[in-house]
Amino acid sequence: MHMRSSLRWFFQMNLDTRTFIGRFFPKDIRKHIDLDSVKLIDNKKLTKGYKKYQLDLSFDCKFNGKKV
After folding, report:
1. What is the rounded distance in angstroms from the CA atom of residue 46 to the CA atom of residue 44?
2. Mean pLDDT of residues grouped by 10 in the chain (68 residues)?
């Protein structure tokens, strides 16, 4: 399995994403993230030849009460 595919699979589960943030983000950043608002953004793109590409993993969330 390709590394990026593996990461996407892991982070598709919002609970796993929230666990990752809770364990690995610095506390001074983590305290500002509304974990219930964390959602994976679909950022797959197709070329003119219909080849599918996965861009970076991206998430929507509320940070300090504002959607970012």
Report:
1. 7
2. 59 71 91 90 75 75 89
